[in-house]
UniProtKB/TrEMBL annotation:
Modified residues (4-aspartylphosphate): 59
Natural source organism: uncultured Chloroflexota bacterium
Keywords from the UniProt entry: Coiled coil, DNA-binding, Phosphoprotein, Transcription, Transcription regulation, Two-component regulatory system
Ranges for domain Response regulatory: 2-124
CDD domains for the chain: REC
Name this protein carries in UniProt: Response regulator receiver modulated serine phosphatase
GO BP term (any one): regulation of DNA-templated transcription
Transcription listed as a keyword: yes
UniProt xrefs under Pfam families: Response_reg
PROSITE patterns on file: RESPONSE_REGULATORY (PS50110)
A GO term for molecular function: transcription cis-regulatory region binding
Length: 299
């Protein structure tokens, strides 16, 4: 057991050191007690750092500080160390106050023998060890609860994102739209013009990146102009809302595969706005210029 004795009175310090040596000699445990003596607060701080004590035996009356302040300074400097405070007969209430603030025990000078001193110090070490272990378990539990809460939030976000994507994908191939397309000989762009479809997906995916850049860095991009260009290309190819949704869904899936959770959430939010505007741009295109009767003639 390594004891740091913080006592400014040389006579008292000598008595405590002798009592500890006597206790070590007569201990049934055969324990070794090493004592480091510090005569003041600053020497105590240095000893806490350099000698790695197991317990601090602290006189509350030091040249630098008195009473509870002495205990508070040492406790703050070495928060994990057990501290047993020493007091005089006329200062016992202060020692009790130190115990209330975290000291493991207190001893009254002149009423302590070696065996009592050793027992008090060992008790202080075990009690502090138990307190530290309890605090560690509480921290682990809090961290585990926080991780579980974060995981639940992330799971809910992913499920919401998957629901949104599934809803968009359902819109991309409704039975009625498929029958209409087959009747007029208009296959979806994905099947009828795969190379052109891939180009639209690539441009739209780049547009998603620009939307995030504009959102995160306040950099202005002509998103509306780029959307108008994509809408006109879809319209020129006699594409419709189904093609818009397929371009949107394919590009969004590509970007989500490698996105962090935060980026994925931002992508989904920006994509909602972009796909609605793209739909509106396509409607404007058809209002200003009637669509071609077939995709073959458009090509």
């Amino acid at each position: 057991m390594r004891v740091l004795l913080v006592e400014d009175n040389p006579g008292d310090a000598r008595l405590f050191i002798e009592a500890l040596r006597e206790a070590a000699t007569s201990s049934a445990l055969g324990a070794t007690i090493e004592v480091t003596h510090a005569g003041g607060l600053h020497a105590a701080f240095a000893a806490c750092r350099d000698s790695a004590p197991d317990v601090v035996l602290l006189d509350l009356g030091l040249p630098e500080t008195q009473g509870l302040e002495t205990f508070q300074r040492v406790r703050d400097a070495a928060p994990v160390l057990p501290i047993v405070v020493l007091s005089g007969l006329d200062d016992e209430q202060t020692a009790i106050g130190a115990v209330r603030e975290g000291a493991q025990d207190y001893l009254v000078k002149g009423e302590v023998d070696g065996r009592l001193l050793e027992r008090s110090l060992r008790y202080a070490i075990e009690r502090r060890r138990a307190e530290n272990e309890h605090a560690r378990l509480l921290e682990e539990q809090a961290a585990r609860r926080a991780a579980e809460a974060a995981l639940a939030v992330e799971r809910e976000r992913q499920e919401r994102q998957e629901r949104e994507l599934a809803a968009i994908e359902r819109l991309s191939s409704p039975p009625r739209a498929a029958i209409t397309g087959q009747t007029f000989g208009l296959a979806a762009l994905r099947e009828g013009a795969p190379d052109l479809f891939a180009g639209l997906v690539e441009d739209y995916a780049r547009l998603l990146d620009l939307a995030l850049e504009q959102r995160g860095y306040r950099v202005e991009h002509d998103l509306s102009g780029r959307l108008r260009d994509i809408a006109e290309r879809i319209g020129f190819l006699a594409g419709g809302p189904r093609d818009v949704v397929e371009v949107h869904t394919t590009a969004l899936h590509q970007r989500l595969r490698s996105a962090t959770p935060q980026r994925a959430q931002a992508l989904v939010e920006e994509a909602r706005v972009l796909v609605l505007e793209l739909m509106g741009r396509l409607v404007s295109y058809y209002r200003s210029q009637p669509p071609r009767p077939s995709r073959q003639s458009a090509a």
